[in-house]
Amino acid sequence: MQFRYLGNSGFKISEITYGNWVTHGSQVDKDAALACVRAAIDSGITTFDTADVYANTKAETVLGEALKSERRASIEIFTKVFGPTGPKGHNDVGLSRKHIMESIEGSLTRLQTDYVDLYQAHRFDYETPLEETFQAFADIVRAGKALYIGVSEWTEEQLRAGHALAQDLGIQLISNQPEYSALWRVIEGRIVPTSVELGISQIVWSPIAQGVLTGKYKPGEPAPSGSRATDTKGGADFVKRWLTPDVLTRVQHLAPIAAELSLSPAQLAVAWVLQNPNVASAIIGASRPEQLEENVKASGVVIPAELMARIDDVLGEAIERDPVHTYDRSPKAREA
What we know:
By secondary structure, the chain is of the alpha/beta class. It has twelve helices and ten strands. The chain has helices at residues 30-42, 58-67, 97-111, 130-142, 156-169, 191-198, 235-239, 245-252, 255-260, 265-274, 289-295, 305-315, and strands spanning 3-5, 12-14, 16-19, 47-49, 76-81, 116-121, 146-151, 173-176, 201-204, 279-284. The strands form two sheets. The protein has an eight-stranded parallel beta barrel with strand order 3-4-5-6-7-8-9-10, surrounded by five helices. Strands 1-2 form a two-stranded antiparallel sheet. Strand 3 (16-19), helix 1 (30-42) and strand 4 form a beta-alpha-beta unit.
């Protein structure tokens, strides 16, 4: 496992982060979730990402149980705040001081830790003054309950405003967590250049495009049993945008490129996002330990420029690059 600095800080994280978005407390049972975390640790992963909204707090609870026996200084735990949690009342959502201060306490209790390494604004909150949000973050950092601050799916303007407030308050905004894959490249035009300028790294989610880049979904064939596309608890909703004949046909042509590097298509997909120097880590999930054992092999892989160009040629018009999609990610009004 290779490690990279997160943003303009001295803090290092593993190139592969284990994330439990649609697995812990939802898609897989507790025993399988614990086995996946153990496999992640055995594979060299030290960084773990979750959020209070995942499975309405259950994902944090499972992760806390899985990590409680580990030496705390040897792992990095990330969580997020914004989405509706608990009974989903009128103050159980957003980035108000009230919700942030109550949410960090809940997250620490569920994760069975005194602090998180990175506390992230899961989305931008258009209904709360940014000054209020960052003052709350600063108080949490000064109280030792979080070491660094990050955000997720913020626009370039939001990153600039947040970074300026963080500097004024003497805290470090060092990361953004966007979707990024060989198929979904909307951050490249504006977010990445802005982040490089500000000293912010990307921790990217869905590097395998919800499993589509593994090549397991074949054009004209039913989705494999047990795959994300057959998950009725929410997974199918996220993957369906990629399940078009054109995308699936193009993805099949990535297998020979992966083979030239002695990689699986999934490993190629993870290695691809790590070729971007602004990416500090790629988040991968798993419902089975062997998925982790395979995908961590992408760490440290260098894809030659000619093969990167061939990937572009193969995927062609299936690639989404329009930066406007980042503006669609944060809800304009909070909904509990």
